[in-house]
Design a protein that fits this description.
two-stranded antiparallel sheet, rod-shaped, 967 residues, 73% helix, mainly alpha, 1% strand
């Protein structure tokens, strides 16, 4: 029977303070007996809190039960009374124990007496086993509280043997094992603890039994079995998902003690290797890290620093991606520091970064919150690693600087050593850059990141990694916008870009891309760091590169900024900027601006600077191009003004030659011939050997033609003919010159050149004939009949012998020549008077008549209408003239009136046929008007007919009158 007011045996033992269990502490690696006390174990049961009962009340109750016992005869009643008395005695004894005002031993002696009396009753149907088990248990408890350990143990043995399935057996077994442990009988203790364990997890002593069994095994030296027991304890205290912080204080102590003794055990064996081997056999636990942690701490307590560090490192090596590995790596590094192992610290930090840093697989699987603890160490370690590598590289640089004077190195070995040092330095710089890079990636927002990026750029630059250095410096200057290092970083980026472009290994495309990067970086530098003393030079270089790349529209604003820079840039930079502007404006056809820019350059050059000539030429070229734009816009006069300026700007330049020449051409187009003439004559004088000079003559010809200065035009033509090797040009020039001299009234020169042409150039036939014709005319005008007749005869002869070349023009000219000659004969005929002796003079007149008629008959054969009517009229006129001449001829002297009359009649008879013939010819010629020919000669024939036949031909013209009145 179980009573609520009874405390468990565990509390009794704890309160007695007489039963001690072994624990462990370490001093010089020796185990001393400092085992945990029972109060450190989890109690079997939590006692109920009972009210304090006054002694007087207890005395009254006990007195009544004693009175009842004296009169009771029934055995079962007496047993019940003894049970109540035992319980009351236990209540009083416990109360005295709690009050602590007097020795409780006498009271517990009463308890023992009462329970012994109760157990003396035999078993029957009324004395249930549970009540007897409770009595035995309480008796053992009373013995224990009085310090009678042996009696207590014997009583518990009695309980376990008599009632193996009793409720208190597990505790009894536990207490027996405790007693064996106290005696140093670790085998019996282990068996006892195992007996408790066999009850299963339901017993409240299950955890403590496993714990103490582990101790018993440890004390016996059975370390693997000990580890199994302590592992069972840890499994119970820390199931999957549980945390040590959630344990009660006693369980937390139990956990710590278990871990500590396990650490001692591992240290007795092979340390961390034993941990791995043990759990390779029974299965790795989720608290695996706690085992390493305690072992590491144990080694550290014993100042075994290397063993401690190796323990932490061992965990990391076997659990690389475990969440606890970073912490163990940190502890390893700290222990290296405590143990004064400086050579091991840096590699350990490097391993930490590689295992858990930004580029590790471990890092990828973490949330940002999980990364924070790691970042704390990465921040320090990366900084230290990078600084170490950077300073190491600088130390190598120092060694390189001293190499040539280092007597320890043989001269013949110096180049080899130099190469090795250079390679070593590069490795240090590259590794430093990697650590800087990882710091930047890990802490992009950290205040120190900008500095790290700058140092990374320096390391990369020194390592010859110019492309990466460029990117690093750019980030400092324009991404992080570092106020302290930004300008230096921006400029360093440009230096790195220059080094890239210096490489002969760049492809064409890569060179173009890097050139573009450098230009963009230069412009950013000038924009961002305008107050930097290098900014204006950088901007100038960028503008220069833009113009070299054929990008003048982008070069213009950059160069303009240089010219406007405040404070003013130095003279060389301004000169370069103006040069760039001049070229850019010129390339973009902004020629007026180009002229202004080049003029600024000229103003900045010393008077004796050899570059002045080139700049002057550029100015002239800009003005020349401006003129072309004006021409395209139709402003020819303005264009000429610009071209004339060119000559004044750069008189000895090629552009000035072209400008003067073009100006003359445009003046001719504007019909400003006087100005054009002056420019061309000046050009001929200035540049006699220029190829353009040969083309001036035709232009001068045109000018003189337009001014009707024909002789000068002819002179130019003859110059052209003489200068030319072209026979066709020479021939044609000779003819045109003759024409021009003729136009200008210089007959002698005209005759000379027509004659030269007519004699020397029979072909082309028509033009040769024209020359002959002009000669005949000029000689006619000059009154040189002989020469005129020569050329008339030449014309006639030329036409006659022309053959297939004979043309209408040659026929006409031949008819003209014949006409002229016939007219000469006609004039001669007219000049011959009829005088006495009439026969002789008439004979002469008739011969002239025949000759003249023969010429006109030839003329008529040409069939040229204008000369046919002339010939017809002249023939009629010859006959009419002869008739008149006969009638007007000299009369013989001495004739009387009759003779004279007869002589007159005779003359009329002679003259009349001629007059009749004349009328007939005149009428035939006049009748040509009927077919549409009504020229001057037809008109003259009509006039002659009016004179000869007035009755028929002298009639007034009928005029038809009409009214223009409205009808």
């Amino acid at each position: 029977m179980k009573y609520a007011n009874l405390k468990p045996l565990a509390c009794a033992i704890a309160l007695s303070g007489t039963l001690l269990l072994p624990a462990c502490s370490f001093l010089d690696d020796e185990l001393v007996d400092d085992s945990p006390k029972l109060e450190q174990l989890e109690p079997a049961r939590i006692p109920e809190v009972k009210p304090i009962v006054a002694d007087a009340e207890l005395d009254k109750v006990q007195a009544r039960y004693h009175s009842a016992l004296e009169v009771a005869e029934d055995e079962s009643i007496r047993r019940d009374i003894h049970e109540r008395l035992a319980e009351l005695a236990m209540l009083r004894a416990e109360q005295k124990l709690l009050e602590g005002t007097e020795d409780p031993a006498p009271y517990f002696a009463e308890v023992i007496n009462q329970y012994q009396a109760l157990l003396a009753y035999p078993m029957d149907e009324h004395y249930k086993p549970e009540a007897r088990q409770e009595a035995i248990y309480q008796l053992a408890k009373a013995y224990a509280l009085t310090g009678a350990v042996e009696e207590s143990t014997q009583t518990l043995t009695q309980l376990t043997e008599a009632h193996p399935d009793a409720e208190f057996v597990a505790e009894a077994q536990f207490r027996r094992a405790e007693a064996a442990f106290s005696r140093g009988d670790y085998v019996e203790a282990a068996d006892g603890y195992q007996a408790v364990i066999d009850f299963g997890p339901a017993t409240p002593y299950f955890v403590n039994a496993n714990y103490m069994r582990g101790w018993a095994m440890f004390k016996r030296g059975w370390y693997p079995q000990s580890l199994d027991s302590f592992t069972a304890v840890l499994d119970l205290l820390l199931p999957e998902g549980a945390k040590a912080d959630s344990l009660t204080a006693s369980n937390k102590n139990l956990l710590d003690d278990s871990l500590r003794i396990m650490a001692v055990t591992f240290s007795y064996l092979d340390g961390p290797d034993t941990i791995e081997q043990t759990y390779a056999d029974i299965g790795k636990r989720h608290y695996h890290h706690l085992l390493y942690e305690k072992l590491g701490e144990l080694y550290l307590e014993k100042e075994r620093y290397r063993d401690s560090a190796d323990t932490y490192g061992h965990y990391v090596a076997h659990n690389a991606l475990n969440e606890y590995s970073p912490g163990f790596s940190v502890r390893q590094i700290e222990v290296y520091g405590l143990g004064n192992f400086p050579s091991l610290i840096l590699p350990a930090k490097e391993t930490f970064v590689r295992n858990y840093g930004f580029t590790s697989a471990f890092w990828t699987g973490l949330s940002e919150e999980q990364r924070q603890p790691i970042k704390t160490y990465l921040h320090t370690y990366l900084d230290e690693l990078a600084s170490y590598e950077h300073s190491s590289a600088q130390e190598v640089s120092t060694d390189l600087a001293k190499l040539d004077t280092d007597k320890a190195v043989k001269p013949e070995d110096r180049e080899k050593v130099r190469a090795e040092l250079v390679a070593k330095r590069a490795r240090h710089y590259e590794q430093a850059a990697l650590w800087y890079s990882e710091f930047i990636s890990t802490f992009p927002e950290d205040p120190k990141t900008s500095e790290m990026a700058f140092l990374m750029g320096e390391a990369l630059y020194e390592a010859g990694k110019m492309e990466q250095a460029f990117a690093a410096f750019e980030s400092v200057a324009y991404q992080y916008k570092d106020p302290a290092r930004g300008a230096e970083a921006g400029y360093s980026a440009l230096l790195a870009a220059d080094r890239v472009l210096d490489s002969e290994l760049l492809t064409v495309d890569d060179r173009a891309a890097w050139t573009e990067l450098k230009i963009a970086s230069s412009l950013r530098f000038a924009d961002t760091f305008a107050t930097d003393s290098r900014a204006v030079a950088v901007l100038t270089q960028a503008a220069n590169e833009l113009i070299k790349q054929g990008r003048p529209l982008e070069a213009i604003p950059a160069a303009t900024r240089v010219t406007q820079w405040q404070p003013e840039a130095n003279q060389d930079l301004r000169k370069t900027a103006w040069l760039i502007l001049g070229q850019s404006y010129y390339d973009t056809e902004q020629y007026q601006q180009a002229e202004v820019a080049y003029t600024e350059v000229l103003n900045l050059l010393p008077k004796n600077d050899p570059q002045r000539e080139d700049i002057t030429t550029r100015i002239a070229a800009s003005v020349y191009k401006s003129s072309e734009q004006l021409l395209a816009a139709g402003s020819v006069a303005a264009a000429v003004d610009q071209l004339v300026r060119v000559q004044a700007l750069a008189p000895n330049s090629e552009i000035a030659i072209s400008a003067q020449y073009d100006a003359a051409n445009h003046l001719m187009a504007l019909e400003r011939y006087d100005e054009a003439e002056q420019l061309l004559l000046d050009f001929r004088k200035r540049y006699p050997d220029n190829k353009l000079t040969a083309t001036i003559t035709p232009k001068m010809i045109v000018i003189y033609e337009k001014q009707s200065r024909w002789s000068l035009a002819a002179d130019e033509l003859l110059k052209q003919a003489r200068a030319s090797g072209d026979p066709v040009l020479q021939q044609q020039s000779l003819y045109v010159a003759a024409e021009y001299y003729e136009k200008d009234g210089d007959q002698d020169q005209a005759i000379n050149f027509y004659r030269e042409y007519a004699h020397n150039y029979p072909e082309p036939f028509g033009q040769n004939l024209e020359a002959q014709y002009r000669l005949s005319e000029l000689y006619r005008e000059a009154g040189n009949v002989q020469n005129r007749d020569y050329w008339l005869r030449k014309i006639i002869e030329t036409d006659r012998t022309a053959g297939e070349q004979r043309s209408d023009r040659s026929i006409t000219l031949a008819a003209m020549a014949t006409s002229v000659r016939a007219d000469d004969f006609y004039q001669e005929f007219q000049r011959i008077p009829l005088k006495l002796p009439l026969k002789q003079s008439l004979q002469k007149k008739k011969k002239a008549l025949q000759d003249t008629l023969g010429m006109y008959e030839r003329l008529m054969k040409y069939g040229v209408a204008e000369y046919t009517t002339q010939a017809s009229h002249r023939i009629g006129a010859i006959y009419s003239q002869l008739s008149r001449d006969l009638m007007d001829s000299q009369r013989p002297k001495g004739l009387d009136e009759l003779e004279l009359e007869q002589y007159e009649i005779l003359l009329e008879e002679q003259a009349f046929p001629f007059e009749e013939q004349a009328i007939e010819i005149f009428e035939a010629n006049a009748q040509r008007s009927w077919t549409g020919t009504y020229d001057d000669w037809v008109k003259e024939s009509f006039k002659e007919l009016e004179r000869l036949l007035p009755a028929r031909y002298r009639k007034p013209e009928a005029v038809e009158e009409y009214s223009n009145a409205l009808r």
